[in-house]
Design a protein that fits this description.
146 residues; alpha/beta; D-tyrosyl-trna(Tyr) Deacylase, Chain: A; two-stranded antiparallel ribbon; 8 strands; 21% helix
């Protein structure tokens, strides 16, 4: 499971000209689900994201996590994160989970995240989404769970 975290001042997702999810300060999470991912993989990634210290403390050091700053998290499914880009000029998506399995794990991920954090917004799985954000820093990290 791949999670691209971006520390944001604000972020939103629009589908068919309607905002379906938005947050203020927090994390925009682009979530890539791979074939071998499981609920256990999802739980490990959730725990790491919630504890990951990417927000500034009073000394302007990255010592605070999402919960300490009472930030929101906007989860957007993005199967292209699972692309194999090692060969040729066209990405292969052979390592991405099939759509039905990916949606089931995505729904599980969001439900578990909501049970652990109060401010969770989402895009719409497999929709054509427009994502807007103000990357704070910029600060971006790729987390990979196996």
């Amino acid at each position: 499971m791949l999670g691209l975290l971006q520390r944001v001042s604000e972020a939103s997702v629009t589908v068919d000209n309607t905002v379906v999810g938005e947050i203020g300060q927090g994390i925009l999470l682009l979530l890539g689900i791979q074939k071998n991912d499981t609920p256990e993989t999802a739980n490990k990634l959730i725990d790491k994201i919630l504890a990951y210290r990417i927000f500034a403390d009073e000394n302007n050091k990255m010592n605070c996590n999402l919960q300490q700053v009472a930030g929101g998290i906007l989860v957007v499914s993005q199967f292209t994160l699972a692309a194999d880009t090692n060969k040729g000029l066209r990405p292969s998506f052979s390592s991405a989970a099939p759509p039905a399995a990916a949606q089931e794990l995505y729904d599980y991920f969001v439900a578990q995240l909501r049970s652990k954090h109060s401010s969770v917004a989402t895009g719409i799985f497999a929709a054509d989404m427009k994502v807007a954000l103000i990357n704070d820093g910029p600060v971006t990290f790729l987390l990979e769970m196996e």
